[in-house]
Amino acid sequence: MSKRFDGKVAIVTGGSSGIGAAIVARLTAEGAQLVNADINPPALLPDASVFHRTDVRSFAQVQVMVEATVARFGSLHVLINNAGIGHLAETPDMAEDDWERLFAVNVTSVFHACKAAIPHMSGSDGAIVNIASISGLLGDFGMGAYNASKAAVINYTRSLALDCSRIGIRVNALCPGAIAGTAMAVGEHGGDEYRRSWLDTIPMGRFGTAEEMASVATFLASSDASYMTGAIVAADGGATAHTGQLDFPGRRRKREAGLL
Question: What pTM, to 2 d.p., does this model score?
Answer without folding.
Answer: 0.94
